[in-house]
Write a structure and sequence with these properties.
Elements lengths: L7 E5 L3 H13 L3 E5 L2 H10 L5 E5 L7 H10 L7 E5 L4 H9 L4 E4 L4 H15 L14 E4 L2 E4 L4 E3 L5 E3 L2 H12 L7 H9 L9 H12 L10 E4 L3 E4 L4 E2 L3
Parallel strand pairs: 1-2, 1-3, 3-4, 4-5
Antiparallel strand pairs: 6-7, 6-12, 7-8, 8-9, 10-11
């Protein structure tokens, strides 16, 4: 089955053979492909040939490596573009670091073009699972909801008395997803994908534990929650009004 012609893929890899191999294979699969060797070329392509539906990003490159580029992409106007990271190293620490930096999936070299295509399609499918008309709050330094404020720079909570409540990385990502999409029912699959990437599919119920931990941070009663409500057979919804706060 051919991918839709609208699927536009940007490949960033310093290995010419890999660029040519992937470009040829993905084009045969019905995709529009642009392939470049460096971060500098990536930025030019994003400005002149974008937008793209997905970026394939090599981790180990001379100059700016994939982690640096991934972090920059997540901090800029292309923050919502899915990223599939490639690397010659397959250690768990590298995989976790790539996901922490914002990659949506992680594929160690060597790999088959067919495997990469399957991963790429899975990433695109998860990215398109989100309901339409979702609101983004990326530009605000502080987000206010109920008696709480989230500092998006320091990544911690502030209660009504300005007491700091620290958050783990996973707790922050989950809360951030909820605050970006208030009053929208999100399934467990959507929450797992948005907070943890592809590897989270191995732990289907782990999102429930993470929601429980976040409720504790927010002092939210599970039986009568004020913020995170369970929607039976569907997932969770963040029910409070979210507004930008004073920086």
């Amino acid at each position: 089955m051919l991918a839709p012609a609208s699927d536009r893929i940007l490949i960033v890899d310093d290995d010419r053979e890999i660029r040519e191999l992937l470009s040829t294979y993905l084009k045969k699969s019905g995709m529009h492909v642009v392939a470049v060797p460096t971060g500098r070329h990536m930025r030019v392509a994003l400005e002149e040939s974008g937008p793209f539906d997905l970026i394939i990003l090599d981790l180990m490159m001379p100059g700016e490596d994939g982690l640096t580029l991934c972090r920059d992409l997540r901090a800029g106007k292309h923050k919502a573009t899915p990223i599939l990271m490639l690397t010659a190293r397959g250690e768990e620490a590298d995989r976790i670091l790539g996901l922490e930096m914002g990659a949506d999936d992680y594929l160690p070299k060597p790999f088959s073009a067919r495997e990469l295509l399957a991963r790429l399609r899975a990433v695109l499918r998860r990215a398109r699972m989100l309901p339409p008309n979702m609101r983004s709050t990326e530009e605000a330094r502080r987000l206010v909801f109920g008696e709480w404020q989230l500092d998006t720079i320091e990544r911690h909570l502030l209660d009504a008395d300005d007491v700091v409540v620290p958050l783990s990385g996973a707790e922050y990502r989950l809360l951030r997803v909820f605050l970006d999409h208030p009053q929208k029912v999100l399934s467990r699959d959507q929450l797992l994908s948005l907070t943890q990437g592809r590897e989270a599919e191995l732990f289907e119920r782990s999102i429930d534990l993470l929601v429980s931990r976040l409720r504790q941070r927010l002092r939210d009663e599970a039986r009568e929650p004020r913020y995170i409500k369970t929607v039976r057979s569907e997932g969770y919804v963040f029910s409070a009004l979210v507004e930008p706060g004073d920086d």
